[in-house]
Structures are given as structure tokens and as C-alpha cells.
Write a structure and sequence with these properties.
216 residues; alpha/beta; Rossmann fold; 6-stranded mixed β-sheet; 4-stranded antiparallel β-sheet; 7 helices; globular
């Protein structure tokens, strides 16, 4: 499903990514571990088509992201990718249900209620559909973010340090939930983290360093 082939990136004369290659099949959940500043978020941005590599390719379902124009990449992210971030990015003026439904609303789905409510229940927030973000804990906000990432049935889920703002118990619950939901939806998943404990929830683990990507 996802084929990263020889991706390299330089910033300010420094190699941030060097010949990174990785293949991920549908249903696989893969962790990329590395220290802060090693290029994890840069790699995720390249996979998402937000910035181009200096060399190498990213192919999603055999389509080279580098061959797409900006509009096509935007539609690809909207329709086929799901994102979960450390900072939640839950909109404070929308209810839980409105936040989860937002990707469907942007795609003009006629029924933007049934699927969001199902996902809200599946992440353990049944009965909180009308709650505002200010009424939720950090762990609950991340559950909303996971439901929102999955509501459009993406083929690829990208999670960037999704437990960085959570305590140990909430982090454990969110990691288990993210794995469960990625598997249940048959998506390919990438978890980017500095924590080897978080990476342990994944099927395969890799370390990103200045020399490239190596299996753990």
C-alpha cells in the first residue's frame, strides 16, 4: 500500500533524512522511533505529501505522490489519509460530534451523523456527543481526534507523537485504542514517537537516525 523508496532530505546543508526506504501493507501498524530533531516529523510530512523529498519517491497504492499537483495531493490527504497529532487539534467551538463529523462535512456527505456517532461510541465516548472540548480531559480529547481521523475510512493513518501530552495511563489507553481502530478499519498505520514503550504497541518497529532507518 505504501512504498517509501530512497527518500532523502537536506536542510541548511545538513542531511535530515538519508536514503529512507520502507514498505507497509494494508492492516500493518508500524512505529518509527527517534530522538527529537532526527527528522521523524519531516519524514511524516513527506509521506503525507506536505513537502517533497530531495530524492527518492513515496508511492501510495502505486501512485507516485511526486507526480501529483498540489490540488491532487490535497484531495488525497482529505479523502484517504487520517492524521492524529500530539496537540489534538480539536476545534474548541465545535461539539464532540461536530469535530468528528468535520471530515465528512468537508466532503459533503449527506449522512454526517451515523458514522461519527458509531466512532464516538467505539472510542469510549458514547453519551458525550454534545460535550464541548473544554469539558473533556486530555485523554478524551485524543479519543475525539482518533475518531475524527478514522471517520472518513482512510487507507493510511499517520500518528505524530499522539501521547506526548498525556499521562502514563491515558497514553497506554490511547495507544491501545489507536492500534485497535487502525486494525479494525484495515488501514495501514504509522506511529512516529520518541518512546520505545509506545512503539511496542506496533507490529514492526524502526529507529530513524542520521544513518537512515533500521529495524528494531
Amino acid at each position: 500500500m505504501l512504498d517509501i523508496a530512497g527518500v532523502a532530505k537536506r536542510f541548511g546543508g545538513r542531511d535530515v533524512l538519508r536514503a529512507v526506504s520502507l514498505r507497509i501493507a494494508a492492516g500493518e501498524y508500524v512505529a518509527i522511533v527517534g530522538e527529537s530533531g532526527v527528522g521523524k516529523s519531516t519524514l511524516l510530512n513527506i509521506i503525507a505529501g506536505l513537502e517533497p523529498p530531495d530524492s527518492g519517491k513515496v508511492l501510495f497504492e502505486d501512485e507516485d505522490l511526486g507526480s501529483l499537483d498540489d490540488d491532487a495531493r490535497t484531495l488525497l490527504r482529505r479523502d484517504r489519509f487520517g492524521f492524529v497529532f500530539q496537540a489534538f487539534h480539536v476545534l474548541p467551538h465545535l461539539t464532540v460530534e461536530q469535530n468528528v463529523a468535520l471530515p465528512l462535512v468537508l466532503r459533503s456527505f449527506v449522512d454526517a451523523k451515523t458514522k461519527p456517532r458509531q466512532l464516538i461510541a467505539s472510542v469510549g465516548l458514547a453519551g458525550r456527543e454534545d460535550s464541548m472540548p473544554r469539558e473533556l480531559s486530555g485523554g478524551e480529547l485524543q479519543r475525539v481526534a482518533i475518531a475524527r481521523a478514522l471517520v472518513g475510512e482512510p487507507k493510511l493513518v499517520l500518528a505524530d507523537e499522539p501521547t506526548g501530552n498525556l499521562d502514563q495511563e491515558n497514553a497506554r489507553q490511547v495507544l491501545a485504542l489507536l492500534r485497535e481502530q487502525v486494525k479494525a478499519h484495515g488501514a495501514a498505520g504509522i506511529l512516529v514517537t520518541h518512546s520505545e514503550a509506545a512503539a511496542a504497541s506496533c507490529d514492526r518497529r524502526y529507529r530513524l537516525s542520521a544513518t537512515g532507518l533500521t529495524p528494531l
